[in-house]
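[scheduler] slot 2 assigned
[scheduler] job type: sequence-to-structure, two independent chains
[scheduler] chain ordering preserved from manifest
[runner] begin chain α
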Amino acid sequence: MGSGAWFQEEMPLMDTFVQQASERNDKAIIVIGRTAGEDQDNRAEKGSYYLTDKEDRMIRLVTTYFDRVVVVLNTSNIIDLSFVESYDPSSVIYTWHGGMEGGRAAVDVLVGHVTPSGKLPDTIAYQLTDYPSSQHFGSDVQNHYVEDIYVGYRYFETFCPDKVRYPFGFGLSYTTFEVNPKPFQYDATHQQFRFSVTVTNTGDVSGKETIQLYVESPQGTLGQPAKRLVGFMKTRLLAPDETETLEIKLSLHQLTSYDDSGVTGFLSSDVLEAGDYLFHIGTSVRDTDIVYDENKQPYHLRQTIQVRQAEEALKPVTPFKRMKPGKRRADGTYDCLLEPVPLRQQDINKRITDRLPEALSFKDTTYTLQDVLNKKITLDDFIRQLTDEDLAILVRGEGMVSPLVTPGTASAFGGVSDRLLSLGIPVGCTADGPSGIRMDSGEKATQVPIGTLLASTFNPDLIEALYRYEGKELIQNEIDLLLGPGINIHRHPLNGRNFEYFSEDPYLTGIMAIANVRGIRKEGAHAVAKHFACNSQEQSRNQVDAVVSERALREVYVKGFEMAVKEADLMGIMTAYNPVNGHFSASNYDLNTTILREDWGFRGIVMTDWWAHMNDPVNQGVPSRAHTDHMIRSQNDLYMVVNNYGAETNRAGDNTLKGLQEGTVTRGELQRSAKNICRVLLELPVMTRKQVFRDDSGLIPSQSGVVNHPLLTTQPLAVSNETITTFNVNETKAYRMYVTYTSTGDALSQSAMTIKLNDQVVATAQANGMNEIAIKQKLPKVTLEQGTYTLSLMFKKQVSM
């Protein structure tokens, strides 16, 4: 976990200063800021979730002297809002982190040029301890997901609505709207509902409204939340007195629940339990009306039906209990009961061995991947010519800031050896997102809003349009895969990475993910959804086990991934660092094969998060980065990352080839992952663009006037962080650069150093914390001429050399 709370120190305010300001102005704006990043959760302390003493005093003073006060929350996560009751500001606006245009957008809203229309993608409770996951968050070993499917508003609306300060889906506007839903229609032939809603702007300024559709399913034997979001739609910009009619379509199958215990009579199935299904339409989870059909009846199902038979996958092995509604109270809420969670019954070893892919026989040919693209041969014909060494190299990605791809990006994969390149396998490029392209090279890219802000729009058309521009920028920078969207669930407000993710609700998360993926795809690039699965905290993220029921996993924590796979043809997924029910995500067979590929039909590539650990997909055991045999067995195809130029020489020392010899992975399994990788490469932009490798920085002219400086030899130059080194070159030719460095911090910490010769950038070296162990890294070539050169370093983060 990182150190220190991420907040901005406020300037101390004196009473007289604020009083004098109030005499000159009748309105005041207060901005509260919080930053965020990887590997650190927010904390239940001042300066993080809670206001600092200076922030609290500032709000108190300003609201004392000013009648109209706006508090702007420029934060990454939900923070404590008890100051609303204490000081009663005129309004509070969550601007979240709005990217490079966020400040201008906030000003447009504050001065009234734009009417706000955002809605909360999360529930804001009165107390941090009110969230149902609070007692099972922050462990270094295991977190039991006791709340099960009752995450966020599903918990509060079912058991304790009185604990909510601001409900899910809530958001104010400068105007008002009248919402008139019509009776719903049901098409039995196509098993589809249609909801028609008329929205009229009854205020004085133009604005937009979001209509939200919730279902209240019969409690049955499974138990259900009081309300569940199943649809939403946003109006266009409506002028005063203007009306728009919205139509929301809903498939009957969207109402299913997963039976992981067999209590309905349909074990491991999506089911619809008998009873009345009530539909609620409104502008937040609280502000709704029940909508009936033309006969003023709810949708009624006479008997429980099995909609889809699945198979047991990834049930927990650790016993624990989960929440379930009990007796309904007079106010419509439910008693909260606990029931044992169904545990794993299937034999994972038998499942794996029964489904081992048959190896393709080796055939010594010289086909190229272009031959597959041109349909001269099949992909199997191409794969069968790869040797065991070829296959072992192919499942390794290199990075960060590989010289083989766009400078400063996250990784290179595919043709990372001369042999693979000769077979026409291109080198694909990935870059960090999701909030814009990260290039540690000095090149600029657009910074877009964080996921939570995007979800607050409830406007997938807008998000798709935004990510079409992101797709254009990816193509412009020759990047094939954006490492985003992040589509984990906001299980708890303190998760430090909530800003990358959309919402506490899986349906809203899935719709936003679909819009994101489609936008990028329409411009020719592709997205990689992450982190699969249950990355619900940053503290101890590479070891804490998410112990979760199969029902909660399927209905909540992987639902967004499922929607993106099935409705947007997602082609890339990144697994999480953490284990799920004992098996690390990067080597979790049921996660990466049973659910993802066999159940959902995913046909893309699965990659690890950077420098992830894996353990045995059957026996669990001690995790290690070397366990690529377990990774491949689970059908996580690609290890990210080994050092640049390290894939061909197995610099990381993985045990892929050793696993082949010892039988912990088969050639058929390696070929399966190779096919997955090549299948995606065939669809990426790199397959049809002319690839220019950045392995040579070209000629760097020497300085005029040779003076007496150390001569460049095969011996390394000693360079420190603070100094500039000057040297002479006697012979004009191409030189290969190497850097030997030490870096503090753990192995997941990241630093980047840009190397300049005569003030021209020649390379970027990426460093991971190695506890000050010296690492030698190969860099691109550079052509130097006879003369004098000055070497200088520019650091993105501190690295000792």
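[runner] end chain α
[runner] begin chain β
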Amino acid sequence: MKQRLSDADYQQLFRQLLTGVSQGWNSEQVFQHLGHRMNDRYFKAWLREYGKRLRKLPEADHQLASQLVRLSRVGCGELGEIAAEIGRDLLIKPAGKGEEVAAVEPRKRVSAETSPQESISSIENSDSDQAQAWFNRGNQQIDAGDFLGAVASYDKAIQIKPDFYRAWYNRGNALDECGEYKQALESFEQVIKIKPDFHEALNYWGVTRNKLGEYEYAIASFDKAIQIKPNDHKAWLNRGDTAGNSRHDNPEAATILQFQFPNTSPILPNPDLTQRGYEGALLSYQEGLKHCPQDTHPEGWGQLHQAIGYAHYEQGKYQRNYRDYWRQAVTEYHQALITLTPDAYPELHLEVIQNLIRVLLGLNQHTEAKEWRNQGLKVFQTLLNSQKSTFQKRRLQAKFFSFSQMRVDVLVEEGEPILALETAETNKNLYLTWILDARKETTLSPDYRQIQSLTHPTTAIVYWHLSPNALTTFIIKHNSENPIIIDVPLSASGEVRGIKPLEDWIKTWDESYQEYRKNPLPPSCEKGKQELAQSWQDNLAKLLEELQHILSIPAILTQLNPESITNPTPQIQNLILIPHRDLHRFPLHALFPDTFTITYLPSAQIGLNLNNRGEIQPILPLQVDYPPHENCGKLTSAVIESAAIAQLFPNSQRISGEQATKTTVTNALNGNYTIFHFSGHGTYDHETPKNSALLLNYQDKLTINDIRQLCLNSYHLVTLAACETAITGRETIEKDYVGLVSAFVYQGVSHVLSTLWTIPDNISSLLFMVYFYWQLKKGKPPVVALAKAQKWLKNLTYQELALYYQEISQQLPEEENNLRPKIRDELGKIRDMEPDKHQEKPFQHPYYWAAFTITGAPPDNP
């Protein structure tokens, strides 16, 4: 039993801890300082009482507050979480000082006695003090999530004190959070030049190189960091992760790195660590364990075992004898849990449990997986309840979304469909708000009746939810007392199959789609070739048929429109699809008969926020056409497409090519337009979704963060054409989809038309877009215009197409020279065909029409 210390002793212990962390202590040094006091309940109780006294003060010492927040980042377990919670509460108070603060943090310099704002404005301060004040301010901005503001503050500090290596280091971390990896590298490089033995900078220089795919340079950097500090478990973890990504060893990387940083010590080659891939990752982690023993480095020892387990799991996913690998993973995860206990490291403990549950389910050990699920839910809830800061609670909810997802499973098992649906919707809105509006204090989420208000006798919602071990489908119909839950199909042996069939299907889709992206050609026309082909585009129809079965679409259709002679009800004609996680990446609308008019929503709450304005009046388009971005190919079809739309709407404003800078596009978007049509490239950032962007002129881009600053309520429609702007990337989405489409509807755009895959330089995209906009011009709402365009395109014959070309050609001005040559060429191809081919439907394959999706306000109820 731990002996209770006096309050004065606890205060002295904590003061020493703060001083050490401010000087750069890592988790091992913290552990050595605190020892068994890290889990001392009396120490935690003292800290909570101390926090209460600080919260009562009218002002707060913001430097102390930032130090308290940083304690949670260096492995102090629950003690660090309590301190961080106190620190965040203090940061929202006015800056100042008080007796309580002075009693804990002795003042040694001017900047520690005054707030950063006071230090900056004081003429009498020395340059060093002013630099320190800007540095402190940057730290506070990072703690509050204002990374761009932090960069600006660090720039001020560096301007005053160019060799302020910690300011350079924190600047690099802030830029990394913003997705500005190249600028982050430059900051870390400055640190290494100023202080060659600062191993943290070498470590993060390697992390950033890894994100850029420069694996061998990253490994060389980790090796330098490890040479300075051999027991830095984070560097060993990063080395193993990067070695797993790399295909082969490149000794020249170390030589080039040494040339770049001549003041650092040369790397001593280790012949045992030259392997790459799965074996290379394992060797790195195992070598790290030699330097991070269990008794002195409990956090690092546990995390290295966790990493070994994850390496086994990932390798097993691609092997026939996957069970052998996954059993090894289970063993390693249990090892990790020896030191990563819920008391000492609650967050790391939950991370391991998440991994363990996933592999147990893969081994069909459902009983043990449920036991760990229930244990994890208890730890997660306890951790969540201990947080008083809204920001901290939301951070934890975003980090451990799988436990929130598993809570939905528990409610379904307990026969609570309404609570299960409401919990699933709350999870969605929490994550959407976390990514799109992190500073927002409250998250709105509707109850069942509010969700149901989106429906009508002819409109229903199909709502999917994925957890690590279950696929749940909710159907919400008008005036239905409870949501209908669709049972998961059984396997041939009669066992519930869970989520694995969907995961296997996604893996097949991703592998074949990545091959398609290397050589994006349309489906084969000749039957013989079609039978032999294994390409994604040729197998698309078959893949969708398989997905239709996995998602139980026939059962959904039966529930939507049950056949009943005694109790006839209006037929469902409109569907609102609300996918979850990876399901956002696939054309779910193509799984339903084309008798339905279908729209998507990121969440029901966003649907409730949107205003369905029906017919677009007036039609005032803003077009941004084919901006040339670095490392992106030219979109030839986009030129013709934009010209065609401009012919339909002569009053459109066009920003073309190099004119499409960020400043020009942002200023234009703030105008009173009703349609924004973007023809160009887009990106999705899987690691940091808020950095997903539309690519503009050369290095310029319009990110989700930028979109969030715009007022877009006047826009009825945003069209994101010619790029995979609706797709979220090939990486598995474990939380939920938040991409460009979500950002636009979150900002109030009624509808967003986007594409799930590229159809490069094919006339079908041009035909689709022109027909879609033609329907808008005739007064059709966007959802109806999309449904009509898809049905028209897939049923269009060559004979009808020739007549359509002739009609368009007659309406074009004589001086038009973009669209007219293309139409002339296409007409010539049809005239040269054999007459018996004129009734063929060239675009019937889902490849041509299923890529287009519309997200936004549900169809108007009659």
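[runner] end chain β
[qc] chain β: The CA atoms of residues 834 and 840 lie 11 Å apart.
[scheduler] slot 2 released
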